[in-house]
Design a protein that fits this description.
Layout: H1 8-22, E1 46-50, E2 57-61, E3 64-69, E4 72-73, E5 78-85, E6 96-110, E7 114-119, E8 123-127, E9 138-143, E10 150-165, E11 168-178, E12 184-188, E13 210-215, E14 225-230, E15 241-244, E16 247-248, E17 254-260, E18 267-274, E19 279-286, E20 296-300, E21 303-304, E22 309-315, E23 322-328, E24 338-341, E25 348-353, E26 361-366, E27 374-378, E28 380-381, E29 389-391, E30 394-395, E31 400-405, E32 413-419, E33 426-427, E34 431-433, E35 435-437, E36 444-450, E37 458-465, E38 470-477, E39 481-484, E40 488-489, E41 493-500, E42 507-513, E43 519-527, E44 534-540, E45 547-552, E46 559-563, E47 565-566
Parallel strand pairs: 4-12, 21-28, 30-38, 40-47
Antiparallel strand pairs: 1-2, 1-11, 3-5, 5-9, 6-7, 6-8, 6-10, 10-11, 10-12, 13-17, 14-18, 15-17, 16-17, 18-19, 20-22, 22-25, 23-24, 23-26, 26-27, 29-31, 31-36, 32-33, 32-35, 32-37, 34-36, 37-38, 39-41, 41-44, 42-43, 42-45, 45-46
Length: 568
């Protein structure tokens, strides 16, 4: 679609707002501490928060309290953790509401090792200016490791919030630097269940691509959710994937894909899948596409009249980036911009109309215009005469032929007439319908159907017009005609021949034809029905056959033919 030029004022204003929000309103890490429950232990560690968008760090004491339910669970069971945090070290100079997904990483010790991530729901956090940023208590779940046994103690190691401001996504990790410790424990008893399995690609995956996943021993017919975790299995982010098509069937088999966020940085990660009862992780390596050469574009078509719609294809562009493209005249400066998004592999496609008569090229670039970071493809504005061809070149009253051509007026309706060979006399009454309209590029691909009566045998010219230009192509009309079940085959092929319009109850000879128009030795014979139709199989054995002809025995001039192609 055509897009108006960007507003410089609006862009600069948006950037100022983003910078103002990024360092303060995005460090969503806490709420004033509530009284801990009897089953939990409050700790007051010092945390260091890394603010997004290059806004530095914020350090301070933050209370942490986590309660686990149930307190006794079996391996593979689901445990709910309720998280209550104290005030965040960061404040905001502005008052606003920030959509936030809070998480906390807990290190396990004792009867199990490793890290679990408690992910809360998406919250709308009301941030007050110059006040410690607060988030309400939240709950999330985790699955007890299948190899756990006995008391398992949990100690926070960091919080990590995911926020969205002005359409951009931000992460704010807050690592415990001192004063940490255990916040609670559970006791794992009973035998382990059968763990679910998860398989992910072992080769590098690109940001923005759909990652195929599979597995077994999942909860039958359960809903599968997916998170992107760091290489240790912590810092799990449900926003690491922008879409999913994961399905667990009645047998507990997992299949489908999860689309990796286009902004994912290169590195090693673990994919975590959860079905509410079970979870499993698998490692993946993310590596973005690196262009192997300069920007390149091609356009189709590369010439045509004003109004032609051009398809633009590019490669070697940055992955998942906004690509600008525009027309230019002989001066080389781009006109109004159009936009597309490149794929994870650095390609893009788009369309642009030729909307002024001095257009000489299409340009494409990323980022701001300037320098030599662009690709160009020439376009020639030219009003070439339209062309047309027909297939087959022989038809019959009531028959249809396919017509194709180029350089017609884009989107214009094309009409047809049947003319004498010299073009002196033409008749639209001998055309029943077609061929329709040219496409946006001026290409024609339609069907012309002849009238079922009023057309004598002979040679004609099929004349087409769009009101501005015309084009013609020869067409032979036969009252009798034959049809084949296939139009080509190797020597030795059997071909079914159906004939129409012949004499009532006459004997029909069917022969192969050679390039000079003579009959070959391939032959079959059939009686025509009272309505003049017949159907017979012929064995096409010769390699020099170029067609098939059917003729009445006692009137050999009453005939019809059609092409046949011998293939290797």
């Amino acid at each position: 679609m055509r897009v108006a030029r960007r507003s410089t004022t609006a862009t600069r204003t948006g950037r100022r707002l983003t910078a103002a929000f990024a360092g303060t309103a995005l460090a969503i890490t806490g709420l004033a501490a509530l009284a801990p429950s009897a089953s939990a232990t409050q700790i007051n560690p010092t945390v260091k928060c890394s603010l997004p968008a290059g806004q530095g760090t914020a350090t301070g004491v933050q209370a942490m309290d986590v309660t686990f339910t149930p307190a006794v669970a079996a391996p593979g069971a689901t445990v709910t953790a309720k998280v209550t945090l104290g005030p965040s070290p960061a404040t905001s100079p502005l008052s606003l509401t920030v959509p936030t997904t809070p998480t906390i990483d807990l290190a396990m010790s004792g009867g199990a090792t490793g890290t679990v991530t408690i992910v809360g729901p998406l919250l709308q956090i009301p941030v007050q200016a110059n006040t410690p940023i607060q988030t309400p208590p939240y709950s999330g779940t985790f699955v007890v490791p299948t190899n756990a046994a006995g008391p398992v103690t949990f100690s926070p190691i960091r919080t990590l919030t995911y926020t969205k401001v002005l359409g951009s996504n931000y992460e704010t990790p807050c690592d415990i630097t001192s004063g940490g410790g255990a916040v609670g424990s559970i006791t794992v008893t009973g035998g382990p269940g059968t763990p679910a399995t998860l398989d992910a690609p072992t080769t590098d995956v690109r940001p923005g691509t759909a990652v195929p996943l599979s597995g077994a021993v999942w909860t039958p017919n359960a809903t599968a959710n997916v998170q992107l975790c760091d290489s240790s299995g912590g810092g799990c982010n449900p926003g690491g994937f922008t879409a999913k098509s994961l399905v667990i069937d009645a047998a507990g088999n997992l299949s489908g894909t999860a689309t990796l966020a286009g902004t994912t940085a290169d590195g090693s990660y673990r994919i975590k899948v959860l079905d509410g009862t079970k979870e499993a992780t698998a490692p993946i390596t993310v590596k973005k596409y690196v262009p192997s050469g300069p920007l390149q574009i091609s356009i189709t078509p590369n010439r045509g009249p004003v109004g032609t719609e051009v398809t633009v294809s590019g490669k070697n562009f940055p992955a998942n980036a906004t690509v600008s493209y525009a027309l230019t005249d002989t001066g080389g400066v781009p006109d109004e911009s159009y936009y597309a998004t490149s794929t994870p592999d650095g390609t893009f496609t788009g369309t642009i109309p030729i909307y002024f008569d001095t257009a000489s090229a299409v340009l494409a670039w990323t980022g701001a215009w300037g320098g030599d970071n662009f690709a160009s493809a020439p376009f020639t504005v030219a009003t070439d005469p339209p062309t047309v061809s027909a297939s087959p070149t022989t038809s019959h009253p009531g028959g249809s032929v396919t017509v194709t051509g180029a350089h017609w007026t884009p989107n214009a309706t094309v009409t047809a007439q049947l003319c004498t060979p010299n073009g002196a006399t033409c008749s639209s009454a001998q055309i029943a319908q077609g061929p329709g309209a040219a496409d946006a590029n001026g290409n024609l691909n339609g069907t012309v159907k002849l009238s079922s009566s009023g057309i004598a045998d002979g040679q004609y010219v099929l004349k087409l017009t769009d009101g501005t230009g015309t084009a013609s192509t020869p067409l032979s009309v036969q009252r009798r005609w034959i049809e084949l079940d296939k139009t080509s085959g190797s020597a030795g092929s059997w071909v079914k021949v159906s004939g129409h319009g012949f004499g009532s109850s006459v004997w029909i000879n069917v022969n192969g034809l050679n390039a000079s128009g003579g009959k070959t030795s391939d032959w079959a014979g059939a009686w025509a029905l009272p309505n003049g139709d017949f159907c017979i199989w012929i064995w096409m054995t010769r390699g020099d056959n170029t067609g098939i002809v059917a003729s009445e025995t006692f009137h050999p001039d009453r005939k019809a033919s059609t092409p046949w192609t011998v293939t290797p």
